[in-house]
Amino acid sequence: MHEFSVTIGIVKTVIQAAEHNNAKKIKSVKLLIGKLTHLSKDQVRFCYEVLIKDTILENSELRIQTINPKVYCSNCQYKGKMGTKRNQKTGFPTFTLACPKCGEQTKIIEGLECTIKGIRVEK
Fold first, then answer.
1. Are residues 14 and 31 located together in one domain of the fold?
2. Is 33 in the same domain as 83?
3. What is the spatial distance between Cα 89 and Cα 113, in angstroms, rounded to a whole number?
4. Range(s) of the domain holding residue 101
């Protein structure tokens, strides 16, 4: 469960930023989490609630925005959704680095992030 260690880092960072800015209370925290991080939003929320007890984050709202994967192809300059192909064993679609336009290998440009986008404080 890597969500716990990631959430520890988030909480520590938010508390440090709040203290640096002389905030008395945190009202909300907004996170951007890419789908390719494989972080469970529910697990991050659970860990957050456990970790914020008796801190300036207690009773704060955690808002999580999921970021879909995007790729860039240097061959054809495609920029957009990641390609998928159907897994022959399971029948489920899986992401692929092949460009959906030309088939060349792409570079992931979104979907791997876990970023603190905003902190609302009370001074």
1. yes
2. no
3. 29
4. 70-108
Tell me: do 52 and 78 sit in the same domain.
no
Token couple for 15: 């508390």
Same domain, 117 and 101: no
CA dist 18 and 56 (Å) reads: 8
> What is the predicted pLDDT for the residue at 57?
96
| pLDDT averaged per 10 residues, the chain (length 123) | 91 95 94 95 97 96 96 97 87 88 96 96 84
Beta carbons of 60 and 45 less than 8 angstroms apart: no
In terms of domains, do 29 and 77 share one? no
DSSP assignment of 16-81 equals HHHHHTT-SEEEEEEEEEEGGG---HHHHHHHHHHHTTTSTTTTPEEEEEEE--EEE-TTT--EEE
47 phi and psi angles, rounded to 5 deg: -60, -40
Number of domains in the chain: 2
